[in-house]
Amino acid sequence: MALTLDPSYIDALANRALVHSSVGRWELALEDYSTILRLDPQNLKALFMRGRTYQSKQDLDQALKDFNAVLERQPKNLTVLTNRAFVYTLKKDYASAIEDYNRIIRSDPNLTQAYLERGKLYYRLKEYKKAQADYEEAIVLEPDKGQAYFLHALVVYELKQFQMAYDDLIKARERGVEVDNLYLLEFKKSIENQNLKKE
Predict the structure, then answer these.
(1) In a 10 Å sphere around its CB, with 0-12 CB exposed, 13-18 middle and 19+ buried, how is residue 149 labelled?
(2) pLDDT reported for residue 4
C-alpha cells in the first residue's frame, strides 16, 4: 500500500527489494535499489544491498563497483570489506582478497572467520606456512571450532606433519565436523610410511 500511495517511500522499496531477492528476482530487486539511490544518493545501505544483489546474480564487476563506492565513504566497514573479499575470491584475485582480510584483521584481530578465510587463500596459493599460522590463530580464538582443526589438518598434511594432521582430524570430528574415513585412512597410511623411512 505504501508504494501505491507514495512511490518514493524508501522503506517500502527496500522491503520489496528484499522480497524480490529472497525468491531470486534479481533484476526487480536491482530496480528497487537503484530507485532508492536515485531518491537518496547517500543511502549506503541501499548501495551495499545492490552490490550484494549483483553478487548473488554473479555480476561480480558491478558488485565490486558498489562495494568500492561504499568503502570510499566507510573504509572501515567490515561487513562490506568481507563481502568484497568474497567477490575478489570468486574472481580468483586472491591478492586483493588477502589485502581485504588484512584490513579486517587489523580492525578487529578477534574475528576467527577472517583468519580462516585468509588461510584458505594462502592454502590455494600454496603458502602453507602462512595458512598454518592463520588456522592456528583461529584455534587460539575459538578452541572448539572444528572447521579450524580440519583446515589445519589439511595444511600440515601438505607440510608432511602427518601425525599432527591425523590428530587434527580427530579433534575436528570431536567438534562436530563430518570427517570422511578416507581422510583418516590416508593420513594414517602417510604416518606409517613416514615412520618406515625413519627406520
Answers:
(1) buried
(2) 43
Which phi and psi angles does 180 have, rounded to 5°?
-65, 135
The three cell numbers of residue 47 are 548501495
H or E stretch at 27: helix 26-39
In total, the chain counts a number of residues equal to 199
Residues of the chain under the 70 pLDDT cut: 1-8, 199
pLDDT one-digit tens code per residue, 150-191: 999 999 999 999 999 999 999 999 999 999 999 999 999 999
Per-residue CA distances from 147 to 12, 35, 98, 136 (Å): 39, 41, 20, 12
CATH 3.40.190.10, domain 2-108, yes or no: no
Q: Is 142 exposed, middle or buried (0-12, 13-18, 19+ CB in 10 A)?
A: middle
